[in-house]
Amino acid sequence: MGFIFSKSMSDTLKSQQELALVNSRLQLERQILMQNQMRERQMAMQIAWTREFLKYFGLFFGLTAVGLTTGAMKKKKPGLLLPIVPLSFILAYQYDMGYGTLLQRMKGEAEKILDTDSALLELPKGAITFEGLEKARRAQSKFFVEK
C-alpha cells in the first residue's frame, strides 16, 4: 500500500515539476518579448524625435545659411560663412540618423563588437554575483542600523 501511495506521490510531484517548468518557460518568453517590444518602441520614439528635431534644425540651418551668405556678400567678409560648416555637419548627422543608414551601420558595428571585441564589454570587477549583492546589502543595513 505504501509503495502505491509513494509512486502516486512521485508521479504527482513529477507532473507538478513539469508544469512549473512549462510555466517558467512561458513567463521567460513573455518577458523577453515584452522587453523587445519596449526596446523597439523606445527606438521608434528616438527616431521620431530625431526626425522632428531635423525639421526645426533644417529650418534654422536654412535661415542661418541665407542670413550669413547675405551678410557675407554685403559686407564682403567671407569669414561670416564659417559657422555654416559645423552646422552642416550637425544637419547631415541628424538627417542620417532620421532618414539615412546610421542606425544600420551602428547595429553592424555593435554586432562586430559583440563578436570580436567582447572583452571591452566586461564589467569592472567582473559580473555581479548574489554573494556580492548580499555582502553590500548587509554592509548597508549595518550602516543604517548604527545611525
TrEMBL record:
InterPro entries: Plg-R(KT). Keywords: Membrane, Receptor, Transmembrane, Transmembrane helix. It holds the Pfam family DUF2368. Coiled coil: none annotated. The keyword Membrane applies. The chain crosses the membrane at residues 53-73, 79-97. GO terms for biological process: positive regulation of plasminogen activation. GO terms for cellular component: plasma membrane. This is Plasminogen receptor (KT). It comes from Alligator mississippiensis (American alligator). The gene is PLGRKT.
